[in-house]
Amino acid sequence: MNELEKKHFMSIALEEAKKAKKKNEVPIAAVVVRNGKIISKAFNNREKKQNAINHAEVLAISKACKKLKSWRLSGCSIFVTLEPCLMCFGAILNARIENVYFGAYDKSNSSITEYPELLNSSKLNHKANIEGGILEEECSQILSDFFRDKRKNFVEHN
């Protein structure tokens, strides 16, 4: 996949993240793509559903599996606005997704680039190619703005 295509699909993920922000959800989104076509899109909805596993990646994978009528998403790539957490990376591996493209690096939580020994483990029965930093500034900015506004509203109301 070329750089222009990567930026295109990440920009679609960013549009989904904006939808999450409008719903007062942490603005993280994911898009699953196969053969240059979008299979599914999703954004976080943990707050609305009060469900800890409702991360964008898990929801997008679930939708893609349903659409393709298979738990195996071979040949698919996932675009995520924030570096996937370990739970989401486990779902990505279990779904057999080939490529993981993410925007912002997650410096505050346990994320996949913190554990290179895990990513390269011979014990994993599937490996995914990982590339970060796609539209990194835009992906980071939406998160920074969201949490800045949250802190500001908290201070104003307390």
Q: Can you count the helices? A: 6
Rg, Å, rounded: 15 Å
> Helix- and strand-based class?
alpha/beta
What's the helix-strand series?
HEEHHEHEHEH
Biggest sheet descriptor: 5 strands, mixed
How large is the share of residues in beta strands?
15-25%
Biggest sheet, strands in spatial order?
A: 2-1-3-4-5
Q: Average pLDDT value? A: 93
Helix percent reads: 40-55%
Low-confidence stretches: none
C-alpha end-to-end distance: 49 Å
The count of DSSP E runs of length 2 or more, i.e. the number of strands, is 5
3D shape: globular
Short account of what is shown:
By secondary structure, the chain is of the alpha/beta class. 45% of the residues lie in helices and 18% in strands. The chain contains six helices and five strands.
Give the SSE layout.
Elements: H1 3-22, E1 29-34, E2 37-43, H2 46-49, H3 56-68, E3 76-82, H4 86-94, E4 99-104, H5 116-119, E5 129-131, H6 136-156
Parallel strand pairs: 3-4, 4-5
Antiparallel strand pairs: 1-2, 1-3
Helix pairs in contact: 1-6
Describe the protein.
With 158 residues, this protein is an alpha/beta fold. Helix content is 45%, strand content 18%. A five-stranded mixed β-sheet has the order 2-1-3-4-5. Helix 1 packs parallel to helix 6. The longest helix is centred in the C-terminal third of the chain and has 21 residues. The termini are far apart.
